[in-house]
Amino acid sequence: MDDVYSFLKQNIHKDKMIVGVSGGVDSMVLLSILNGLFPKQVICAHVHHNLRKESDEEQEFVRDYCAKNDIIFEFKKLEYESKFSEEIARQMRYNFYEELIEKYQANILLTAHHGDDLIETVIMKIVRGSTIKGYSGIELISQRDKYRIMRPLLYLSKEDIYRYAKAKEIPYREDITNKSDAYTRNRYRKNLLPFLKMEQKKVHLKFLEYSETLLSYYEYVEKVIDDLYHKIVIDNKLHLEKLNELDPFIRDELIKKYLFTIYGNKINKINKKHLKIILNFINNAITNTSINLPYNYRLIKTYNYIIIVKEEKFKNFELLLEDKLSLPNGKVIEIVNNCDDNSNFTTHLDLSNIILPLKVRNYLPGDKMVVKNMKGHKKISDIFTDEKIGLDERKSWPVVVDQENKIIWLPGLKKTYFDRKNTEKYDIILKYY
Fold this sequence. Notes:
There is one protein chain. This protein has helices at 2-11, 25-37, 55-68, 86-104, 115-128, 132-135, 158-168, 184-191, 193-199, 203-232, 240-243, 248-263, 272-283, 380-386, 391-394, and strands at 17-20, 42-48, 72-77, 108-110, 141-143, 148-150, 233-234, 237-239, 289-293, 297-301, 305-310, 318-320, 324-326, 332-336, 346-349, 359-362, 368-369, 378-379, 398-401, 407-410, 414-415, 428-432. It is an alpha+beta fold and 433 residues long. The chain folds into 3 domains: 2-212, Rossmann fold; 235-310, 2-Layer Sandwich (Uridine Diphospho-n-acetylenolpyruvylglucosamine Reductase, domain 3), CATH 3.30.465; 318-432, 3-Layer(bba) Sandwich (Phenylalanyl-tRNA Synthetase, Chain B, domain 3). The strands form 5 sheets. The chain has a 6-stranded mixed β-sheet with strand order 3-2-1-4-6-5, with helices on both faces. Strand 5 and strand 6 form a beta hairpin. Helix 2 (25-37) crosses helix 7 (158-168) and helix 10 (203-232) packs across helix 12. It is elongated and about 100 Å long.
């Protein structure tokens, strides 16, 4: 218990704090300790999960305890729009906690996770598979955007908590579902923990040491990844040449970070199978290809980079070109009076050779053009390949055509035989930028 008191005194001062309290022995012990150390700073947050007939009585029990001990009591009864799931209930519970953090201007949330919970979580993660951070189980302190979550009872076993409750005469309620073999966690608790505790009485402290060590490694790797990230990811694209220079472990972790920036809280939809497919996809020799990912995302691999884009139905465009035209790809085509540039970003046109009006449309499969100083037609798709234009850019690449849909210019890439030299007769100059 000394570790718990020392942790709390070191990390909490005059802060307002929200405490998640179910009415079970763990949370009632935590509430009692906190109210003893930090009176008038504690807000009790009780969630009525609306699943068991005992929930109403538990709510009244916690409310009465708070009234007798001069503790602010807040509660929320959950209503489920669809079928119950632990993940949905957890999200609703934390939404409630965050509402209270905002209401009371608190910056700490305390939960009653204890050492046995840590053991169970670590073993379950190992069996199911996880990330470096996931394998560490439950953190003593974790940082959210506007507050910290603290779990001081990780220093204690379940037996320690029961002994303390008995010694201090702290009332609590037992949840009978904690003994049901229908729940995976309960089976680990019932079958594995007794063996581990028989081998090492304070085994939960060994798991806590393991957890903190693994988190230290994770934080170091994260720092390395953060330092590299903006050198490898440029304009939201993962540059393959730089990526492949990295150690395979760091490379894979950087790819995971890139995926997280896309998926955020939905990152759990990317599993080990997806990661293996993505890594194989990146490492093969094929360029200009793509694969589908969950939630309508698409991973595109082009010559020098990979990029993840949201798959949205592309809308064809055809725009009238008069003076200055802003394009869907963020570029501009403008009719200018003078220009010394002779690159593929400009073209000089003799209006007697074309039929007005000029239009700008997107590339269409099968498009061909007569490239300046070449005989015959060339597919625009082949020009894209020659110029290493990625799949993500091709759909919106502008093509300038006349009234009869003859291709006059492929801006930025190739001129056609319609282009005139500065010394020849021309009527207008088009500039792409």
